[in-house]
Amino acid sequence: xxxxxxxxxxxxxxxxxxxxxxxxxxxxxxxxxxxxxxxxxxxxxxxxxxxxxxxxxxxxxxxxxxxxxxxxxxxxxxxxxxxxxxxxxxxxxxxxxxxxxxxxxxxxxxxxxxx
Length: 115
Description:
By secondary structure, the protein is an alpha+beta fold. It has a single domain (3-114), classed as Aspartate Aminotransferase, domain 1 (Alpha-Beta Complex), CATH 3.90.1150. It has helices at residues 3-18, 65-68, 78-82, 97-114; strands at 23-28, 31-39, 46-54, 59-63, 84-85, 89-92.
């Protein structure tokens, strides 16, 4: 197992734990996609909740509720903020227990905000 596989497994578990009751649209090696239970009012397509995807040089963790509610990211640690790309994506190259605990809390907070 590569380091990226191990990172993906841990982040996948975090996403799936928060996704209870949501729709797992794809769960393939290196690629997890989770949708909300609601459709986008404009397109009629399922709304996204998050993804965990192995890329060429990192593992991407997208948490889409951050786009709709940027205040969810208030209080991010400096270490996690450094891994943030754009509004909803965090990139990881290695496992980090402290950062993954913060990602878990943020993901649970984003999930709770949907209710």
